[in-house]
């Protein structure tokens, strides 16, 4: 199966030039087309996301990405993309995620935040997991865990 990688413990995705890959952490192992490494960068956006109760790192990651792009418009981007095609855009998302939660990030949900282009996701050590100070099982806390999960996102938009 040339052009595919094992979906085991892969954190970094989309960085094998010109290949298509099985999407790591995907429940359906869908084939995802990956762009080459990002070229010219036109914008860098920063965001932070949290999950206060329930320890859902994907929810925190999605919120960080949405925070990063919430107040941005890049109308000039279509002038520099090949044929003005927004699907030729490359979005590189670098997420700082606490080590103990990194394997639980659903990369498909993170990619779904971005409506256009090829989305590359890179998970790095970072973020925080801290005590909320109160255990709330009715809000999703389980096993005595009252952790707040904080994820940081750097979103690079380019071609």
TrEMBL record:
Check the record and name the NCBIfam families matching this protein. lin0512_fam
What's the protein name?
Uncharacterized protein
What keywords would UniProt list here?
A: GTP-binding, Nucleotide-binding
A family per Pfam: Lin0512_fam
Q: Which GO terms describe its molecular function?
A: GTP binding
């Amino acid at each position: 199966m040339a052009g595919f990688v094992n979906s085991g413990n892969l954190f970094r995705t989309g960085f094998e030039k010109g290949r298509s890959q099985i999407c790591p952490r995907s429940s359906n192992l869908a084939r995802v087309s990956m762009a080459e490494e990002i070229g010219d960068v036109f914008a860098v956006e920063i965001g932070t996301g949290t999950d206060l109760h329930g320890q859902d790192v994907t929810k925190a990651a999605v919120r960080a990405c949405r925070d990063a792009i919430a107040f941005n418009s890049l109308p000039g981007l279509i002038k520099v993309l090949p044929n003005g095609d927004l699907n030729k855009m490359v979005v590189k998302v670098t997420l700082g995620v606490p080590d103990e939660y990194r394997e639980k990030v659903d990369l498909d949900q993170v990619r779904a935040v971005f409506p256009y282009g090829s989305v590359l996701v890179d998970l790095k050590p970072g973020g925080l997991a801290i005590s909320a100070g109160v255990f709330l099982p009715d809000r999703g806390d389980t096993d005595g865990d009252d952790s707040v999960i904080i994820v940081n996102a750097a979103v690079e938009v380019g071609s």
